[in-house]
Amino acid sequence: MANKNLFEERNRPDLSYTPLVLEEQGNVSPSKIKKLKSKKSKMSRPKKLRTYIPEDKPEISPSDLLKTDKDCVLVGKPGIGKTALTHEMLKLWAERDGEELDYMFYFDMRETSDLMKATSLEDLLFSVFSEPDEGKEEVLDDIKKNSDNVTIIFDGITDLSSSVVKRLVDKDLLPDAKIIITCRPDDEEDFFSRDFRRVEVKGFSERSIKTYLSVTLGEEQKKVLNNLELLTLCHVPMYALMVSVCFSSEISPQPCTTTEIYINIVRLCLKMNSNKKKTKCLNFYINNKREQILSLAEAAFNAAERKTVILTDLSCEDSCVLSFLKPLFIKVAHTETITAYSFLHYTMQEFFAALWLLKNPDKVQDVFQQSLTEEMKHMRHLIPFMCRLLNEKNPSLMTCLIPAEELRSTSDGFFKELINKDRGSDVDILFLCQCLYESQCPEACSDLLNTLDYSLDLSEQSLDPYSCCAVAYVVSQSKERKIHLDLENVVISEQGMRRLIGCLQCVQWCDPLPRQLWKIFLLSEEQMDHSSLLGVDGNQLHLPVEGKKQLFEGAVKVMQKVTTKVNVCLYWDRPTPVCQHLCESLFEGLLHISSLSFRVTHRDPGSEDQERHHETLRREEKRLLLELCLKAALHKEESFHSVVNRLFSLFSVNTDLINILLDFYHHVKSEGCSSVIPKLRSVFQSAPSVWIIDLSERKTSILLEVLKLQPEKKRVELTGWSDEESEVRSLLQCLPYISQLSFVPQSSDPSDGPRFFGNLLCAAAEREQQTGEKILELLSSVCTYQTFLLKQKWCDFLLDVCSHVKDYETKTGLRVLPSLQSVFRSASSVWIIDLSERKTSILLEVLKLQPEKKQVELTGWSDEESEVRSLLQCLPYISQLSFVPQSSDPSDGPRFFGNLLCAAAEREQQTGEKILEMLSSVCTYQTFPFNDRDMDDYDPQYQCDFLLDVCSHVKDYETKTGLRVLPSLQSVFQSAPSVWIIDLSERKTSILLEVLKLQPEKKRVELTGWSDEESEVRSLLQCLPYISQLSFSPLFKVSNQTRLFGNLLCAAAEREQQTGEKILELLSSVCTYQTFPLNNRYMDDDDPQYQCDFLLDLFSHVKDYETKTGLRVLPVFQSVFQSAPSVWIIDLSERKTSILLEVLKLQPEKKRVELRGWSDEESEVRSLLQCLPYISQLSCDPDFFQRVCTSISVKSRQEVQQLVSLLKLLDFTLQLTGELNRKTCRTVGRVLGLCSSNVDLILTPRKVSVRGASLLFRPSTQLHSLRYTVTYLLSLVL
After folding, report:
1. 569 vs 227: which has the higher pLDDT
2. Claim to verify: residue 175 and residue 243 sit in the same structural domain
3. Are residues 497 and 359 in the same domain?
4. Which of 545, 707, 699, 558 is nearest to 627 (CA)?
5. Model pTM?
6. In contact, 767 and 718? CB cutoff 8 Å
7. Sign of dihedral through CA atoms 1144, 1146, 1150, 1153?
8. Burial of 342 by CB count in 10 Å (0-12 exposed, 13-18 middle, 19+ buried)?
9. Number of structural domains the chain divides into
10. What residue spans of 1110-1218 are helical by DSSP H?
11. What is the spatial distance between Cα 89 and Cα 94, in angstroms, rounded to a whole number?
């Protein structure tokens, strides 16, 4: 049927006859008609529409009509199938069996031209119908003699104006011939008075409609069957044909709106009644009939407003217009009958009413308002027709009836008014979508989506395929923003679902939409295409945890059909018992599931509620898993283990497998299925080697039962505990089945763990005393291992356990700690304790249990004298003492250690014990006061600050008491780092001097801060004999560093003048190293310019001092400048070139120089040229030489020679760019005159004069190479 025009008669589908409803009857009484119409107006719209479809009657077939001898009049509405019925009778006559000679003649009375010319029976039969090849006279004679063998059909008769036809009907010509007439109801009065059998053709029954659509549309028939308006419209065969044509996907590849079908029906009816074969002629005909059509439309509108189908005010009697109607004869008195009309179908009335509205746009607003009322809500059905009729696309109708300017004027603002007419909460979104689908207007769709905030709530609706087309069209117009679509409890057919799936790329794919779609799919009675929905969402199948059995059975069928495993997503909306239908379906489809995920469909606002919902989700998920595992245990004995493992992998419980197994054991017991426990042994034995359990959430008895199933002892880790005595005793019963017991400290209350373990020890001691069992020994054995507890918290735990047990021993007199000696001995080599939270006496008890001295790290301390003295008692058991600095007050640590030293000195004086020596020995290591593992976390300056503060504290103590403490600490200070870092703005230099005096050799010193006090400067000079290298932190500004160090030099010079000491030489020696003034560790991170800036500024500072005082300092400091880096970097915009010249003169050899910045002062440029004899290599910007030539005026050959020397340092590479003036060209030209053969010249000037070029290039100039740009040549030309 592709590319065929089904409107043409010759291209109509080759269809077999579809049964029509035929009813033999007399005239319908006027009263009954009137009553029937009155009743219709009170019906609901669906019921009203269904009255148009005739009911199947006791069948009268075409064959019956052919066999009867009686004349027949076949009465029916236009297009109702009268012609098709007569054609079927002709077909039956032609195909009949039998040798009896008879005749059948068929005349189409709509073709009247030849009929009117016939003047005799012979003309009618042989000229109009068909002439025999031979024996015409014999045939005619036989027809006349045997007229009982003749059947004549007059199809579509309207009158008896033809005399021959009238004489045949009146039986004058062929008295015994059988006459069959078809006519419309308003023409039958002329024939019904005769002795004719009256048969009314009522059109298609519902069964015939379905048969017809099945043949013409195939699967596409569902589009019509699910649309009540179109279904009932199809009871008229002519309309059914047009509906079929419009819905043919091959004929109409684009979406076909309902209004288009009505437009085509109207055009076809007009065409059939006007005999206009060409579209151009038809449009002309419609235009000519404009007034009559609009008159019909007005009558349709008026009747619609009155809620009736009877057109009582119709003034038009044009036959083409009346072809849309059927007459109604209403008896108003005994002797009077009036004729009224109604449309063949109610929706045709609505169509014409909408047409009239567009001709009268001032009424549109009224209809909008009427449609919102209960009384006149039926008027809303006109609106979708108007939406499409305003569209100018083909097929057209309105352009033939209403001027285009009027239509466009009506269209402006029509859709905005439609969208905004009802902005309330009960807005009919589906109706609006249908209207916009009819309009095929993307702009209106965008307006609607924006009004609805891109959210379409279609919940509780029933969507036929047409509605789905409408929704899909509107959704597809959203190009930039995804739409939220709600399809909760929506009913959709398979065909409608196909339309919706096509637009899902424009929809937000998030809960609850996937779940809603799958629910629609699985509960549908039709065969849905599940693969299309799986393809939308990565092969995911979304299910609620509650639902009908059909829902879950459908899900299993889908899983079994697809070739790849599906990903199942389950949704909970509230806590609920495990749905057995779900459980059975998951169990049945287990092999077809790739993954399983869970979601909560509803979350209240607030983090607490979210957390509560998440907890609910985890709990419900676990219940489902346990139920499935139990089902596997009961029904899958042989493959139980593999099924459970499969379930564990789907539920992603491998990280919490222990708890799941414990829950499963408890579930089996609580469900009364203990008989299957022996079968579960393999699952429990395959569990991880460490059993992790929270005894605050589950009974220890469950753990005991599970441990008994193990083939060997297992490690157990407790993440929570209960203080109930029964639980503690139950845990003791587990000990024979445990290889190792560990604890995870609780962040909420870290003391809980030690207290529980202490209670466990005490309970073990009591039980041992009562029964004689070696319970303490057994408990101790499972806790004796190197990593008992967690590494970071084990010290606090064991110290608290020790404290708890000591209290128990004191209270009961029982000895428990000796039994735990192995536990405390197996602990790590470093004991960490915060003395501000725990008593030192507990640490002493623990250290006494150790087989050897241990390292101790203090993370906090107490100033109580008793605690300090207790710590001194611990020293014999300590191998190394370290401190963790406190961020709150870094001075706390030095003060505490100072107090410890003072207490040790006092005790030593009182008892004679070598306490100071012992304390010094545990602190003598290179990283003191830090443990080795802490050094990466702290700046090494802290170590120096700590020791300097300790020294200061001890010095004050010595001054106050007269005791000598520092000599005993010499080993501590001597083991300190090789670089002493000090901020002289915070600490006295005298303290540094004391520390340096304790050193066995000179030390490197780094200054991170400075004091301007003269006394501090002098003190630093006193430190010089003990310093091997003096450096500064790069955190200093260069200018500050230079000033401070300059002051130090000046102070050294003055002291040397006063005392004759070689202080300057000493200061020079500690500063003579390649990276001065920075330590080596900074040189990789900082710009080497820092060092050069420092030395240049220092030189300038010292020169000023020499000028001011007359003292000679620089000669002594020459070694410092000579040890400087091999490259001198200077910024000409910030420093005088004369300083660089002075520094370069101090060098024993030529140096490399890197120039940055620029100064336009000629004196600076000339100073730079004086530096050339001391420079081995020069680095600068490419245009540096050009700038020099521009800045100075060359007056002598000697100056030219200097420029040649400069160019030589630049490897004779010369670049000239920008605007070259004559002065620059002249200077460069003179330089080239002396060395041109070595020069590589690059010319990229923006502008240069011909005169300048002649100065630049003299006849004798011969370059080594020359590169230039086209711009240069153009600049010469221009």
Report:
1. 569
2. no
3. no
4. 545
5. 0.56
6. no
7. negative
8. buried
9. 6
10. 1118-1122, 1137-1145, 1162-1171, 1184-1191, 1197-1209
11. 9
